Each structure stands twice: as C-alpha cells, then as structure tokens.
C-alpha cells in the first residue's frame, strides 16, 4: 500500500510494527483516538512476529492475563468479518497434559480463573484425551486441561488484519522508516526523528520488540529489563494419517518434553523450551536485523524433541521440512512491559513480550484503555 508523505504532528507515535505495536494502534483507533501514527523500520512483522508459531492458549493462571488471552483469541477469530483480511485463525483447541496429582490440582485452580473470565475449559480423563487426540501415547498421563476454543493463528496475517482495521479508522503507518532519535521538547511533547522526517507527538510508545532497550536509551532509559533468548520449532513433511484427518488436532503442551506439539497443515510441528537455553545479542541489537532467522542449534533441543516424539510417535514417520529459529524477548517475570516509563511524562513501554502473538490482541486492548 502506498504511504503518504510523512505527517509532522501526531497525538500518539508508536515505534514498532510487530503484533504488539499494531494491536495497540488498532485498539486506540477503535477507542476513538485520532492522529495516530506507527513507525516501522522494516516491514510490518519483520522483527520477531513474522516467524512465530502462532499458538494462542487461553490457559492462564493469572486472572488479568487470562482476560488478555481471551480477547486475543476472540479478536483473531472475528477480525476478518470487520476488515475483510483473513487472520489465518485455527480454532483447534489445546490440551495440557498432567503427569502428577499436583498438575491436576493446579488445573482446578486455573479452571476457576477461566470460568470467571468466560473461557471454556474442562479437565479431562485419559479416555477423553484419546477422543480429541488419537495419537498421544497415554502411559504415565493422569489427565489433561482442555480448552476447546483456543488454537493458533498466522502472526503476519493477523497483524496485517489489525493494521487494516487501524487504517480504516484513519491511523497512519510508515514502513521502512527507522526512528533514529527522540527529543523532549520544551512544550513537553516528544520529537521522533525518523529517516523520512520528524514527527512531534504528545505520547510516544516503545513497541520496538528486541530493540526496546535501544529505543529506551534514546530517552535516557538505561537497563530496560528485556533480553533476547533463542527459540526453535520444527515443521515436518506431510504425514499420510494426518492428511486423512477430518478435524484438526488440538495443540498439545507436554511438560515432560517441555514442548508444544501440533498439526501444521497436513504435517506436524514441535517447539521445545530447552533447559540449556541461550541468550542472543546481549551487547545490543544491530539495526540491520530485519526479517532474519538464526542458525539452528539442534543439539541443544534434541533431548526435548526425543521425548515429544515418543509422546506422539507419528513425528518419527516423516522428515523435517523446515526449522525456524529466532529471538524472543524475555523479561525477569516473563510478563511484557506495559505502562508509563519511570520518570518520563507521556512515554510508554509496550515491549518485552515472550508470547506476543497470544497476548498482543488483548494487551493492545487494555493498554489502549489505560
Ligand atoms: C521461533 C519463535 C516462535 C514463536 N512462537 C510463538 C507462539 O507460538 N505464540 C506466541 O504468542 N509467541 C510466539 N513467539 C514470540 C513472538 O514472536 C513475540 O513475542 C512477538 O512477536 C513480539 O512482538 P513485538 O511486536 O513485541 O516485537 P516485534 O515483532 O519484534 O516487533 C518490533 C518491531 O519494532 C521495529 N523497530 C524496532 N526499533 C525500531 C525503530 N527505532 N524504528 C522503527 N521501528 C523499529 C522492528 O523492526 C520490529 O518490526 C515466538 C517467537 C519465536 C522466535
């Protein structure tokens, strides 16, 4: 889409066109805010968002996060009706496996939260697991937490659908335009210095993902608590049995493998959270990093892959089609950073998301209502 000449003034300037920034833009526009602008140094989603696996679980042990996740899934399911742009939503549901009585006790607590926020959830027996997922080997399993209405989405299509919704309400998006510096004016407004011109904004939002600390430094914020860690997932070739399925399998979260396992097209997908995880770009981000993946390190995740593939043996029948490896931002408590930056008026944080696809939709809504 052609972009107009850059505007000189805005009520809100959002830095970063990943799912977090675009969701905030969309929700501010829906709340009736005018003069909104989003600046992206590459293309929309070209940071971490484009390569995410897209899982959006509703199972959250925190009341507020459960509301955020529920809004995301409801939005991604319905957004096409509003915007005409498909989000790639798959409402296949999810299962989280229990191996211990403590897991089942925790499930009861989480079910109370989901009942409260209105997200359908059941604690199901091993027999019932077999009915919704015929391929899981049941040995050692005591039951599962089943959320029938969550699933996974296409992160790029979903972000673009929100961008379309925001533009329909008058918001402006400037791509291929890096914010190179930010100045505080005597009026109390912020001047965004961008490659294509300056924009004076009443509010500025740091939604720069992996670059959150670099953008923070532009306004004197040192030590923003967000680092990048490397994460992999693997997609298999088509599987003859999966090809014949009439209904998509639910996403499985297996704490023994420390992995998510799901259907992807007519094949399978597995993504482990490894024990020996690795940080990335600790000395700062290179501004040139855009639409890039990292070199896979399969030896670090092999143990998890083996356990996961034993749990769903169909994985062993087919070859690996692609391996995705990229950076995810993490904060000390693994919650995204949201809200006013300390000591600065009208400068807001909205970055550090480790499951930004699942949280972006809802986080954007509640941030817009702050
Ligand atoms: C392999 C992998 C799988 C994943 N799977 C899932 C999943 O299944 N579910 C899930 O919920 N999450 C998943 N994630 C995590 C998810 O991708 C991130 O949490 C999410 O994309 C973060 O979104 P964001 O908008 O904060 O950051 P980003 O998508 O990185 O967006 C930030 C944007 O800011 C731009 N930017 C930065 N600085 C500037 C500047 N100075 N000027 C202009 N623009 C700037 C960048 O170019 C970038 O596009 C996965 C991540 C990886 C790596």
From TrEMBL:
The entry's keywords: Membrane, Transmembrane, Transmembrane helix
Signal peptide: none
SUPFAM superfamilies: FAD-linked reductases, C-terminal domain, FAD/NAD(P)-binding domain
InterPro entries assigned: FAD-dep_OxRdtase, FAD/NAD-bd_sf
Classification of source organism: unclassified sequences, metagenomes, ecological metagenomes
Organism name: marine metagenome
One MF annotation (Gene Ontology) recorded for this entry: dimethylglycine dehydrogenase activity
Transmembrane segments: 12-29
Stated name of the protein: FAD dependent oxidoreductase domain-containing protein
GO cellular component, one term: mitochondrial matrix
């Amino acid at each position: 889409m052609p972009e107009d000449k850059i505007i000189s003034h805005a009520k809100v300037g959002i830095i970063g066109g990943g799912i977090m920034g675009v969701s905030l833009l969309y929700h501010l526009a829906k709340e009736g805010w005018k003069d909104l602008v989003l600046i992206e140094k590459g293309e929309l989603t070209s940071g971490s968002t484009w390569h995410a696996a897209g899982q959006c679980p509703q199972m959250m042990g925190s009341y507020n996060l459960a509301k955020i996740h529920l809004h995301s899934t409801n939005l991604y399911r319905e957004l096409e009706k509003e915007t005409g742009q498909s989000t790639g939503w798959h409402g296949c549901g999810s299962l989280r496996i229990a191996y211990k009585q403590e897991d089942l006790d925790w499930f009861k607590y989480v079910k109370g939260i989901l009942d409260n926020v209105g997200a359908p959830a059941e604690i199901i027996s091993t027999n019932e697991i077999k009915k919704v997922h015929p391929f899981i080997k049941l040995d050692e399993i005591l039951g599962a937490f089943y959320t029938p209405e969550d699933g996974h989405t296409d992160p790029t299509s979903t972000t673009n659908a929100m961008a379309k919704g925001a533009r329909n309400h008058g918001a402006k998006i400037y791509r291929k335009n890096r914010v190179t510096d930010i100045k505080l004016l005597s009026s109390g407004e912020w001047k965004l210095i961008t490659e294509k011109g300056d924009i004076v904004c009443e509010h500025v939002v740091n939604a720069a993902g992996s670059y959150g600390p670099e953008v923070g430094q532009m306004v004197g914020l040192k030590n923003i608590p967000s680092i990048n860690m490397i994460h992999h997932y693997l997609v298999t070739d088509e599987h003859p049995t999966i090809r014949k399925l009439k209904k998509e399998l639910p996403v499985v979260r297996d704490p023994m493998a420390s992995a998510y396992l799901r259907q992807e097209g007519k094949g399978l997908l597995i993504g482990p959270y490894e024990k020996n995880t690795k940080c990335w770009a600790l000395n700062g981000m290179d501004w040139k990093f855009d639409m890039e993946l990292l070199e896979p390190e399969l030896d670090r995740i092999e143990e998890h892959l083996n356990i996961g593939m034993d749990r769903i043996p169909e994985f062993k029948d087919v070859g690996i089609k692609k391996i995705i490896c990229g950076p995810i931002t993490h904060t000390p408590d693994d919650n995204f950073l949201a809200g006013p930056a300390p000591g600065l008026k009208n400068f807001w944080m909205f970055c550090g998301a480790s499951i930004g696809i699942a949280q972006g939709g809802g986080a954007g809504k509640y941030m817009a209502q702050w």
